[in-house]
Amino acid sequence: MNQPTDENGRGLLYRGSVDCLRQTVAKEGFVALYKGFLPCWIRMAPWSLTFWLSFEQIRKMIGASGY
């Protein structure tokens, strides 16, 4: 999304998504696809836990039955 483009608006580094995937795996290895996974998980896990625990408690308080 942030690659330089030519005068016609075509990307200079990649021809498309599959080409980007292929080049990334070839240059950096398969593990490069998971860069940022741990920081994202660390950021999202507490929120998800808080949301679902609160959601279940609110459902119990209003008397909602199971799904």
UniProtKB/TrEMBL annotation:
<keyword id="KW-1133">Transmembrane helix</keyword>
<protein>
    <recommendedName>
        <fullName>Solute carrier family 25 member 34</fullName>
    </recommendedName>
</protein>
<dbReference type="InterPro" id="IPR018108">
    <property type="entry name" value="MCP_transmembrane"/>
</dbReference>
<keyword id="KW-0999">Mitochondrion inner membrane</keyword>
<dbReference type="GO" id="GO:0005743">
    <property type="term" value="C:mitochondrial inner membrane"/>
</dbReference>
<dbReference type="Pfam" id="PF00153">
    <property type="entry name" value="Mito_carr"/>
</dbReference>
<dbReference type="InterPro" id="IPR051508">
    <property type="entry name" value="Mito_Carrier_Antiporter"/>
</dbReference>
<keyword id="KW-0812">Transmembrane</keyword>
<keyword id="KW-0677">Repeat</keyword>
<keyword id="KW-0472">Membrane</keyword>
<comment type="similarity">
    <text>Belongs to the mitochondrial carrier (TC 2.A.29) family.</text>
</comment>
<dbReference type="InterPro" id="IPR023395">
    <property type="entry name" value="MCP_dom_sf"/>
</dbReference>
<feature type="repeat" description="Solcar">
    <location>
        <begin position="1"/>
        <end position="61"/>
    </location>
</feature>
<keyword id="KW-0496">Mitochondrion</keyword>
<keyword id="KW-0813">Transport</keyword>
